[in-house]
Structures are given as C-alpha cells and as structure tokens.
Design goal:
Blueprint lengths: L4 H19 L10 H10 L5 H10 L11 H7 L3 H5 L9 H36 L12
Length: 141
C-alpha cells in the first residue's frame, strides 16, 4: 500500500488543480487564458509540472473582493436574528417552547381522532363478523 502513496498524492494534486482551475472565475486567472491552463494541467499532470504551475502562477490568490477573509466578515457582520437580540438556546426560548406545546396539543388531538376512528372501525368489523349488517352492506350508502 505504501508503494501506491506517491501515485495517490500525485493524482490528488492533479485532480485538485484541475477542479480549482475549472471553478476559478476568468478574471482571477493570471498569465494565460483559462482553457490553456486546463490543457497544461491535464497534459503535464503526471509529472506535477502542470498542477504546481497552476497553484503557483495561474490563479490570483490574495485578499477576496470584499477586502476581508470569510471569518473576518462573519465577525464584523451580524445577522438579522442577532440584531433583534442575543441568541437564545431553544430550551430557553419561550416562543420555541410555546410552539412545541402547540404542536403537542395538535398531535394529541390527531391521535385521539385516529383512536376514535379505529374504535369505530373495530366495532363495525365485530358487528359484521357477528352477522350484523355494517354500513358498507347498506344499499342506501
């Protein structure tokens, strides 16, 4: 297995560079057109020249267009929910607990309805088994 490790690493780098090149917007590609970079990566991938050239010289790697990294952006921008107040855990949030109680009441009423329907159907089956005519046997229905 350890004999295959160098080949797997080369393959992984080759695939990474290829996908990175395909996903990079045209305005971030440096030096050559994007199509040429794809060809270079594919043709010279086995010897790592193409993927390494792409990673070193093919893509503009700098500060993102917004001027900050994603983690800096998240630290500096609050979401709408955070602007309304601090975040509250669900088990401490009275609105969430109220919604759970309402859902539980709805579920209990559905369960009672289902149980009543089941009892009604069982009674009809018992009557039919005992020789009585059920509502399904009634020609008027």
């Amino acid at each position: 297995m350890s004999g295959y490790l160098p080949y797997l690493l080369v393959l992984a780098l080759w695939i990474y560079a290829f996908i990175d090149c395909l996903n990079t917007p045209e305005q971030e590609v440096r030096g050559l057109p994007k199509v040429v970079w794809v060809i270079i990566i594919l043709l010279f991938g086995e010897v790592l020249v193409g993927p390494i050239a792409w990673l070193v010289a093919g893509k503009h790697r700098g500060v993102p267009a917004g001027g900050s990294t994603p983690s800096e952006w998240h630290r500096n921008h609050r979401t709408e929910a955070a602007e309304t107040g601090p975040w509250i855990a669900p088990d401490d949030n009275p609105e969430f607990l109220r919604s759970l109680r309402e859902e539980r009441k709805k579920d209990e009423s559905l369960l009672k309805d289902w149980e009543a329907d089941l009892r009604r159907r069982e009674d009809e089956l018992r009557r039919r088994e005992q020789g009585g005519a059920g509502p399904e046997d009634d020609p008027r229905a």
